[in-house]
Amino acid sequence: MKNVQSVLIANRGEIAVRIIRSAKVLGLRTIAVYSEADAAAPHVKLAEDSVCIGPPPVSESYLCVASILEAAARTGAQAIHPGYGFLSENAAFAEACAKAGLVFVGPGVEAIRLMGDKAAAKTKMIEAGVPCVPGYQGDDQSDAALMAAADQIGFPVMVKATMGGGGRGIRLVNSASELSDALATARSEARNSFGDDALIIEKAVIAPRHVEIQVFADAHGNVIHLGERDCSVQRRHQKVVEEAPGPAVSPALRSAMGAAAVEAARSIAYRGAGTVEFLLDAQSNFYFLEMNTRLQVEHPITEMVTGLDLVAMQFRVADGQPLGITQDDVRFNGHAIEVRLYAEDPAHGFLPATGRVEDWAVPPIEGVRVDSGIEAGQSITPFYDPMIAKIIAHAPNRDEACVKLVSALKQTRFFGLPSNLGFLIDILQRPAFLDGAATTAFIGDEYRAGYTPPPVTADIYVMGAVLEFLDGRDHALARTIEPMNELLGWSSGSPITSYIAFGNSKAVHKFAVRSVDMDQLEVTEGAQRYVCSVIRRTAGEVTLRLDGVKRVLLVRRIGEWDLHISEMGQIYRLQRHRAGGQAESLGGDGRILAPMHGVLIEMRVAKGDRVEIDDKLAVIEAMKMQHEIRAPLSGVVSAVLKTAGHQVVDKALLIEITPDQAA
């Protein structure tokens, strides 16, 4: 590097860690910024220097331009890398960096401003000859104008925030009757996330593939593309699985899409890394969706199939150096698939989860890469996106990459709070995905009733009883002086039986466990009898043979009463039964609880109101998304405990409803 020797990373989490690693390889001094909630985060420990920039809320820390520029000045930073999210596509921030004499590791201000405005970007792409979806991107933002445009375009349509990204401010509208609510919600999300509530309307391309092209340009007029990524597997417009190359992209189609993406970048004098996103229909027609003027979350799969370090390339281009490669130099090797591991609860509509990460590790497997900004002992807070890590597998072909990724996920340890780990494994094993047939409708089609994690089966309870027995025996042995193995579990009369129960006030599973010998146990539940032997046992992993079948379990005890077991990537929580323990209310008794930490931005009911099943009761905003709370029963509102505008904690009582049957 000639002109830049130090860089401040204006971001957090896994992308901050990722940027720091490449910066260090280039010999750059790295400076991290952090909020008070992130003081002990990995990216802070990894950087040579770090500066606290404010309280946990993003508006007071990671979105505070003044605090970030002050941190750069205090530490002598020469450049700022914005990562993705937060200020990465904020033209005013890029402009402020330039005025402060800082190199902004990203495109020029005008390119950011133009492509950040979906309406202006689409107009520019039409002028450049890039195929675009029919739609409305006019200045008249009244409901009447948007509704008239939607009628003219024809339903279904997509409502999109002009400054949107990350799935926020986007709604699919199937009919005119849904449009008013969709406009209001999209505007609210856009205003809260981007500070701009302007919208565009586009014809909805039903069940397309989402295919994006990675482009790179330097300040010397060189523009190339690095192939495509298929990001079709999405939930609520948030990408869940990405792969490269795309299973539906032929060499000829890659060439055509690549040429269009290069022209898109060239037409706006682009510089640095960017992604041109397209919708691809069943007839291989592609349409411009948007351009992200930053590094993408899913950039690792491009790195793995091209062998290029995109972050290092960003630094070199920002330093004024040429790309150093031409389009003919770009080679694609094998196949890469990435999944995003989130702290969210699939059993309850994928609500974001918060809490302490008790244990977290992915086994070292050749060809498997893990990009993470979290470590065991750290907490997932309600202030930031709940993504924990990206897990990526690379292999000579798609089938092998998929098998390798599934194997890695099944061996992953993640204990302490809910995650989508089991859901990811399920996706990768679905025939439609394995056949390369997934479109943006994949999750909706495959999981019409949502995703329900497998229940705790009898054998899981039995193995849990065995683990509890073994832990209890170890505890006793630690307080005994050199006992003889042949006397363990025996008394003068008969083998000693231990009684173990799991459950809550709704259901209790009671087991009797006794030693047959040092490594073999007999477990009974009522008239059912099981024989279990211990093959291997360490602090976090146990291999058992239950009724002749070998079982490998990852285990973690959390607190005094919770035993967490992971088998083949499915994580089960077993609670030791306590007399008088209460089951958590999910609203069936009329007590409506907050499903997560967040800000209550709307309360739709008042005391005395009558509600029917599925009526919208309230809206909570958490982790940059709005989550509706709907009535689980019919009845009359007897109490409203919280008002709009207040921060609420997870499981806070919001509303009480007197059910019809109790009236």
TrEMBL record:
Its cofactor is biotin. The keyword Kinase does not apply. Residues 583-658 form the Lipoyl-binding domain. Residues 3-448 form the Biotin carboxylation domain. Signal peptide: none annotated. InterPro entries: ATP-grasp, BC-like_N, Biotin_BS, Biotin_carboxylase_complex, Biotin_carboxylation_dom, Biotin_COase_C, Biotin_lipoyl, CPAse_ATP-bd. Pfam families: Biotin_carb_C, Biotin_carb_N, Biotin_lipoyl, CPSase_L_D2. Keywords: ATP-binding, Biotin, Ligase, Nucleotide-binding. Gene3D superfamilies: 2.40.50.100, ATP-grasp fold, B domain (3.30.470.20). The keyword GTP-binding does not apply. Residues 122-319 form the ATP-grasp domain. This is Acetyl-CoA carboxylase biotin carboxylase subunit. It comes from Bradyrhizobium campsiandrae.
